Amino acid sequence: MLKFRWLIFVTIVAVSKTTFANLPETIKTVQPSIVGVGLYGKLNRPSARFLGTGFVVGNGQYVATNAHVIPELVPSDKKQNLFVVVGKGRNPPTRRAEVIAIDEEHDLALLKISGKPLTPLNIERREVYEGEKIAFTGYPIGSVLGYYPVTHQGIISSITPIVIPARTAKELSIKQLKQLKNPYLVYQLDATAYPGNSGSPLYLQDSGKVIGVINKVLVKSTKESILSDPSAITYAIPIKYLLPLLESVRNKTN
Asked: Which molecular function terms from Gene Ontology are attached (predicted)?
């Protein structure tokens, strides 16, 4: 009987260690595909400004991020250039970037980067459920302490509408009214993201496959505008809304 109990104990410990080991291995695989997104201008002070996080997708020459991360002045202002930070450290290598596709409704953007292709993250195409263990990696406080990716973990706590109808029409903004015409679901997480995390990939702990894009602006501005103080809840846009952008880029290059 004692031997049997000991066998059960050893098995439980072994399974626990294996489960715990999944996330460290996943982070190691995901990190090389995480980039910082910034804006450079000779006349800017400082000359380089951190904007948010992005991650490599597609053929390794594209970076996904939030649309709100990208300044509107970039397409017409030749004195300033977008760039992405590749690697870790105080002064990691950078690549020039340009905007090639934007989806304002879902707050998503695709950038094309210069140089050799990087390692893209895999995208999970199956349905995702509440309670699944997730993680996201990005730059929560920008470049203040150097470009060292930070990972947060948690679960999908809810799959919820991006906007909740208000008690009266007066409580709805123009943006909310537009969202109510074409509502869609987003992921609500029990892990806290910060402004610099905008554009970070939300991925499954065991596989590293991306299921969403962390969003710190669009969802809160529509879902929580009635609150006097925004909550600490973190949301993510489902990855399925990025797929049309990738497909449109592939069609242009074929």
From this structure: peptidase activity
Closest by Cα among 150, 144, 191 to 30: 150
Domains delineated in the chain: 133-245 (2.40.10.10)
Dihedrals φ, ψ of 81, to 5°? -130, 145
- Distance in angstroms (rounded) separating the CA atoms of residues 151 and 137: 4
- Where is pLDDT greater, at 208 or 14? 208
What token pair was written down for 8? 């059960």
Task: Name which of 1-10, 55-64, 122-131, 133-142 the model is least confident about.
Answer: 1-10
Residue 18 is given by DSSP the state H
**Which DSSP category does 205 fall into?**
T
Cα separation of 209 and 36, whole Å? 19
Residue with tokens 């973190």: 234
Cα gap 136→192, rounded to integer Å: 10
Which residues, listed in sequence order, are joined to residue 109 by a DSSP beta bridge? 65, 102
Residue 70 tokens, joined = 């990208």
Q: What is the per-residue pLDDT across 113-146, written as a single tens digit (0 to 9) for each? A: 999 999 999 999 999 999 999 999 999 877 777 7
pLDDT digits (tens, 9 = 90+) for 90-119: 788 999 999 999 998 899 999 999 999 999
Task: Kindly calculate the radius of gyration of the chain based on its CA atoms and give it in whole angstroms.
Answer: 20
- Residue of 82, 125, 127, 126 lying closest to 102 (CA atoms): 82
Those residues whose C-beta lies under 8 Å from the C-beta of residue 73, and which sit 6 or more positions away, are 80
Using the structure block, give the residue that is written with the tokens 């000991």: 6
Handedness of CA 101, 209, 121, 141 (dihedral sign): positive
